[in-house]
Every structure is written in C-alpha cells, then in structure tokens.
Write a structure and sequence with these properties.
The protein is α+β, with helices and mostly antiparallel strands. The protein has helices at about 25-35, 50-55, 60-65, 120-125, 125-135, 140-155, and strands at about 1-5, 10, 15-20, 70-75, 80, 90-95, 110-115, 165-170, 185-190, 210, 215-225. About 25% of the residues lie in helices and about 20% in strands.
Length: about 240
C-alpha cells in the first residue's frame, strides 16, 4: 500500500493511497476482517449480461466506449460479450484488481467500470484477467501473487507498452467502501517506480501516483472534471 497526501482509493487497479494517520491500524484490521476470504461467486457476478455491458461502457465517454470490446464476468473468468472496432477494452473490474494485500481484495460489492486503451488492453489488462481466473479457481492471495509474478518473470504475460492508459469516469463506480465513487479520472501506466520522474505526489502537482510492485508499474492518476455522461464531477479537496 502506498501512503500519500490525499485520502483516495482508485482502481487500476484499486490501488490504495491514504493520508498517514487517517487509516488506523485498528481500522485496517477491521477492514481485513470484514472480507477475510472469497465470498460465494454469485456475489461477484451480475445477473444481467446486458446490464454489465452497459455498466462497463460507462468507464469512458461514449465516443470511446461505443466502439470498444466489452468483456463480462462468468464463473471461470471474463469472456468477450461485444467485439470492438477501436482497440479499446471495457470491463467492470472486481475487487481483486487491487494488490493482494489490500483489505478489500475480496469485497464483493466493488464494481469499477474501466476502459483500457489499445496498448493497455494488450499489455496491462492481461494481468487482471489472469488474476480473475486464479480467483475463480479458488487460489489464495499468496498463490495468486506467486503465479502472476512467475508469469511476469517468464514473460508469459506481455511487457507493458509505452502509452498504456485507461479511463475510469463512471458515475456508477463503486471503488471501495470508504470512497465509493471518488472522482472521474484517467490513469497512465508506467513501468517500474516512476513517481519522482513524473513529479507526482508533490505540492501543486495534479498527478497522484501509486507504485504497484505486484504488477510492476506506477499508476499515475489524474482527476478530471466530468463523469463519462458529461455531468460535473465532485470538487477536489486539496
């Protein structure tokens, strides 16, 4: 977990960023206790495929998401429900998009629409899709981390392409129990620990960075002023 100057949890994968001292050890333990293990799989599934497709598309403006591939979650993983034409990929992320040590890793309420650009769809989304298959196969957090790490080491998962990014602009997003909707934002994926070289997390910088060593990237989060439907987002508190 990366600690910083702003109280946020954002996905992409639901990377936690918190003010030091605002999340007490007792609170963290309580969160972990609330979601100690995988819930029954039905709690992570949406009952209506059309509803999941529509929700996934809210991750980005319609000018992008209308031409995107859309994948939906089933009992063994994500499958393509709509073939795309523009190279983007929209899905509704579940809780295991977070790092394996996140307190809400098993939270069945999380629904986070996200639309990856073509580079991220090819080279970053595969990590989440692999984690999904492992989760639904009943693997533990430790096993999930070990198997994804091995796949990255062996180059069974692709190397991150420069220019990889995604949109997370859904007014309907449920990122976590504390922040719920947070803000519409875009995220840029950069290999390694790139916080300092991007000038992130410093006074006056609009960029929030979260180093994610499990996926071996730094996630740059830039809040934007509108939700994907064009309505204003909440005011940012500095």
């Amino acid at each position: 977990m990366r600690k910083n100057n702003v109280a946020i949890i954002a996905l992409a994968f639901l990377v936690p960023v918190a003010i030091p001292g605002t999340t007490s050890h007792a609170q963290a333990q309580a969160e972990k206790a609330a979601y100690p293990a995988l819930a029954p799989v039905d709690q992570y599934l949406m009952p209506d495929e059309k509803a999941e497709i529509a929700l996934a598309r809210t991750g980005a403006p319609a000018s992008i998401s209308d031409g995107a591939e859309v994948m939906v979650l089933g009992r063994t993983g994500f499958t393509t429900a709509v073939k795309g034409t523009n190279g983007f990929l929209c899905v509704v992320e579940r809780s295991w998009g977070a790092t394996t040590d996140a307190p809400e890793f098993w939270n069945p309420k999380i629904r986070s629409p996200i639309c990856f650009n073509p580079a991220a769809a090819r080279t970053f989304a595969p990590i989440f899709l692999m984690k999904t298959r492992l989760v639904l196969a009943g693997k533990s957090r430790a096993q999930i981390l070990a198997e994804t790490s091995a796949a990255l080491d062996k180059k069974e998962l692709p190397a991150l392409e420069p220019g990889s990014m995604c949109y997370m602009m859904s007014k309907q997003q449920y990122l976590n129990d504390r922040d719920v909707h947070w803000h519409p934002h875009v995220m840029i994926f950069v290999s390694g620990d790139a916080e300092k070289s991007w000038g992130a997390n410093v006074e006056g910088s609009p960029t929030i960075a979260a180093n994610d060593p499990e996926e071996r990237v730094t996630i740059m989060m830039v809040p934007v002023w509108k939700w994907s439907d064009g309505t204003p987002g909440p005011a940012l508190v500095h």
